[in-house]
Amino acid sequence: MSYPNAIEVCRAELFTKEVELRERYPQAFVDKVLRVREMYNWFIANPDGTDREFVSEVCQRHGVHRTTAYSDLAVVKSLLPMLGSASRDFHRWRTNEMLIATYKMAEKRKDSKTMERAATAYGKLNRVDLEDEQAMPYDMIVPQPFTATDDPRVLGIEPIPNINAKISAMIQKYRAETIDIEDVEFEEVDLELDTLFSDPKQHDDEREESIL
After folding, report:
1. DSSP helix/strand/coil, 198
2. Residue 6 near residue 32, CB atoms below 8 Å
3. How far apart are CA 128 and CA 134, in angstroms?
């Protein structure tokens, strides 16, 4: 029985229950998915983590070779569109927590200016200053996929039968009507360039000498 590659399995089964994974895939695939799932969550909790930290964390947690850890890193990076959305939600949540904590500290100190700045930042982050109909989740809009095609029927136009044969016939027709192009040999330009593009200053000097 053939199985898809690891990236396809992880993308399709990232959050599938472990029991179901064991029913569908060999142990090596199950271990791979479980490791990637765990490190996927690690990236969400550590959005500023480096590749080196990721590899070190995988090796320490699962006792695998660095080559395997780098393979896991490649799979997680392939899931970055999913991770990017989760990371934004995580950052938004953490920013809200920080603003609330700042507001509470300023309130205890009766620092109204800091309270006002924290409240303004909180409102802007959560778009409470916008009307409900304007607060559109632009980051959730999925671009319309387009596929290139040479079929005119997508525009409601019926294709011309034997179009390739007709194109070839038109090319032959107009090629036969085209005047033959005559090749000529290169000839040197017979121009007195020194006279045409002479230095005006030199002429002035010569004129002054003739007067003298």
Report:
1. coil
2. yes
3. 11
